[in-house]
Amino acid sequence: MINVLPGYEKAAYRELKNIEGIKDVYHVFGEYDFVVIIDVIDLSILNAVVDRIRESETVTATQTIIGAEL
């Protein structure tokens, strides 16, 4: 889940869509601005993708939740 600077939602969306490993980007309303689905093969790659997201000048906060199959 990602928060961005107010007024930069469209720019952030375009930037997020171009990051390798990001499968889907959803603009949402509420506490967060975006929910991003990341599909990678291991946690080290997930860490690299999250680091890349956090490097963005438009991103102000992230929260990572790891899902598991039942």
TrEMBL record:
Gene3D superfamilies from the UniProt entry: 3.30.70.920
InterPro entries: Dimeric_a/b-barrel, Tscrpt_reg_AsnC/Lrp_C
Spans through the membrane: none
Residue ranges of every copy of the Transcription regulator AsnC/Lrp ligand binding domain listed in the record: 2-66
Full protein name: Transcriptional regulator, AsnC family
